[in-house]
Design a protein that fits this description.
By secondary structure, the chain is an all-alpha fold. Helix content is 77%, strand content 0%.
Amino acid sequence: MAVRSNGTGRKRRRLRPRLAALLAGALLAGACGEEPVEIPLATVGADNLLFDRGNTALQEGDWRTAREYFLQIRDNYPQSALRAETRLAIGDTLEVEGTIESYISALSEYRDFLALYPTHPRADYAQYKLGMVYYNQMRRPERDQTETRNAVTELELFLQRYPGSRLINDVREKLREALDRLSENNYVVGKYYHDRKWYPGAIDRLETILDEDPGYTARDAVYYHLADSLSRTARIEEALPMFEQLLEEFPESEFIEDATERMAELRQGAAQREAAASSAENVTENQTANR
């Protein structure tokens, strides 16, 4: 009897740590996030209840739980008046997740919304979010700008389709930032060429900015390095107006002092060349007269 009693005791002692571990795991899971409460399909107003709970979870930053509530509406209530809003909400939970995979899924949700509900009052929001998903993935100026170009495409499409939207000002601001990023990409390369004295390459890149994005926020830097590159390739007549434009449009620019000095040098050089040419012409005329 004693042997059986000791064996049972040892088994119980071995089970206790396992039971404690299971209980701890359950408590930890509960602390990490609450599972969505299942609501019977036949419940009156279940879709509204699910939608409210999803929005509450989303506002609390629990986007996974929020998505589960919204997915229940999308998948189980085909006649719900909230299905359109639910698709947008699912997209929002995916966007805020912020991973490559979730961004791809968010784009799919917003595009599906626009395809299914093109005249919905919140169609402008879906188009705005398409632009923002790409905007949130924009890289530094020296990196690949595919996502930036996609953001520009979607935001410009927004301006064409929804000129009266309440989101218009934010879209214009984000579009300007995206266009600036593209222009800055060209500027980084152009300045690199300028600093290494490959002026034809610098001129090509910097002129591209002014041609494609005349509203670039940092045009003063473009004006200065383009004018300087032109001046160093004997294109003085093009360089001087560019320096003058810098002074006129950006009187507080960090390049004002350098631009003023370069203009003075170029004008002095031009005056000296003109004087030398005039002197040479006089000498030629005197030689001709003495013959």
